[in-house]
Amino acid sequence: MNERTAESSLRPAVLVLALILLTVGVLGFFFLPEDNQAGENTLWIFSATGMLDIIRTGTGVLGLTAMLKPSAIRAYGWIVFVGFAGLTAFGVLSAATTTAGDAVNFGWADNVLHGLASIGALGIALVSTRSAKPAEQAERRA
Hints:
5 helices, DUF4383 domain-containing protein, transmembrane, membrane, transmembrane helix
């Protein structure tokens, strides 16, 4: 399987991940009324804060643009994995302490979403990396 075919077959997974993050991010902007106190801004079960919405929307847009160039899918997978693993770790600490006035306002649903996004991105990155290695070895032999 060549690199282009392998990364093209990952496009549906990248599309699903990007659309979920983009949808939650964009809709979160509509649930940021200024009269709500910290901890009350929610989109269904997810927290809606400006910072989280920017991160989710940016990651979703980045995923949609990565689909245009198959070689960008691998980089997208690694970037999202590292970023969302960090968000998950910070979110677990933030949700466990429940400090009043927390600007990011992570909840457990956010931690699950970010953890699943991180695991999905790791899968995308590993599959695209693994499929690229035989192609690179074949190029070296030629």
